[in-house]
Write a structure and sequence with these properties.
The chain is α+β, with helices and mostly antiparallel strands. The protein contains 4 helices and 17 strands. The N terminus is likely disordered.
């Protein structure tokens, strides 16, 4: 339909001629050349033919065009605003998104950020199971891969006294590892896989930013169950936890947690838990979590919801294990402790240099 038809009354023609040149009569138009009594040839009903040119009304004809232009402009503004908003929500411009949608500084995808499943999927490949064999037997712990060529952080008590160390990746592939450096005072150790390359690595976070109530995820190998994921919150900060420096004074208990060994003993608040820590002990400030930790979680990762390592799990409380002959069958009661990752980062150069305190 012609757009101008919407702008004139039904049956009327618009004209630019002087309106005084026509007078309305009872049967049609009237002027000096036509008195209304004679019908024009070919004109229906005796009415005069339409003017010889198409009537125009420039003022009215422009209105739809102007309206369409205004709508188009409004759509462009709204569209641009939407793109800007999406860009702001993504932490940057609409075009400048990270490769594969990754959140900068983490390995958790944007769509999975803040979820336990997203953290687990991203970080689990960087968490390993450590089997340490010694003259006292074999124990199981966990570790965190921090370089592609196989540097792994764990607890000192997991590998203390070990004559052979075997590491199992989340893929099931196994490697032999050597001890690079240990720090019994901080209960930390660094080991290195033989012949490894292209491994998935974990991102080290900032434990000074951790707050009570923050959600966390723990990944490790409790009782040899590789890649077990639990979750909870940070329930306290700066807990003074005392642990044995090695396995020599732990009342015959195996070093590490799991694999049939008794749980690693520790002291807190002047009391001993999970056995006797012996004479050679060290105390450190720990993060407390209610994420379930069980024998074998030692050396594994405590992770924030951005997928960053904020602590190395090191001790747990299991009340029944302190009984005579108590073993590793007792489970977590929501009291676990982790060495803050900033303690590890400050000690990393010394561990790489092979220092052993």
């Amino acid at each position: 339909m012609d757009m101008t038809e919407n702008l004139r009354p039904s049956g009327a023609h618009s004209t630019d001629q002087d309106p005084t040149s026509y007078a309305y009569g009872s049967t049609g138009y009237s002027d000096s050349a036509y008195d209304g009594s004679t019908a024009y040839d070919g004109a229906a009903g005796g009415y005069p033919p339409p003017p010889p040119y198409a009537p125009t009304n420039h003022r009215r004809a422009k209105r739809p065009v102007a309206l369409l232009a205004a709508v188009a402009l409004a759509a462009a503004v709204i569209g641009g605003g939407t793109a800007t908003l999406v860009g702001q929500l993504n932490g940057g411009s609409a075009q400048a998104t990270g490769a594969k949608g990754a959140v900068q500084g983490t390995t958790v995808s944007q769509s999975s950020k803040g979820t336990v499943s997203g953290v687990a999927e991203a970080v689990s490949p960087a968490i390993v199971e450590i089997g340490a064999a010694s003259s006292a037997g074999r124990s199981t712990g966990s570790g965190v891969v921090i370089t592609e060529d196989g540097e792994i952080v764990t607890n000192n008590h997991v590998i203390s006294g070990a004559q052979q160390i075997q590491v199992t990746l989340s893929t099931g592939k196994t490697y032999t590892a050597d001890v690079v450096g240990t720090d019994p005072d901080k209960d930390l150790a660094l080991i290195k896989l033989r012949g490894a390359s292209g491994l998935k690595t974990a991102a080290l976070g900032d434990s000074s930013q951790v707050k009570v109530g923050d959600q966390v995820v723990a990944i490790g190998s409790p009782e040899g169950l590789t890649g077990t994921v639990t979750s909870g919150i940070i329930s306290a900060l700066d807990r003074d936890v005392t642990v044995a420096k090695d396995d020599s004074g732990s009342s015959g208990q195996g070093q590490g947690q799991g694999g049939g060994s008794d749980q690693w003993p520790f002291e807190f608040g002047g009391q001993q838990f999970n056995g006797d820590t012996g004479e050679k002990t060290t105390t450190y400030k720990a993060l407390q979590t209610d994420a379930s930790l069980n024998p074998g979680n030692s050396g594994g990762a405590l992770i924030n919801m951005d997928g960053e390592i904020i602590g190395i799990n090191s001790a747990m409380y299991a009340p029944s294990s302190s009984a005579a002959g108590g073993g590793s069958s007792a489970g977590s009661v929501g009291l676990g402790f982790a060495i803050p990752v900033n303690t590890l980062k400050a000690d990393l150069d010394a561990l790489r240099a092979g220092n052993t305190s």
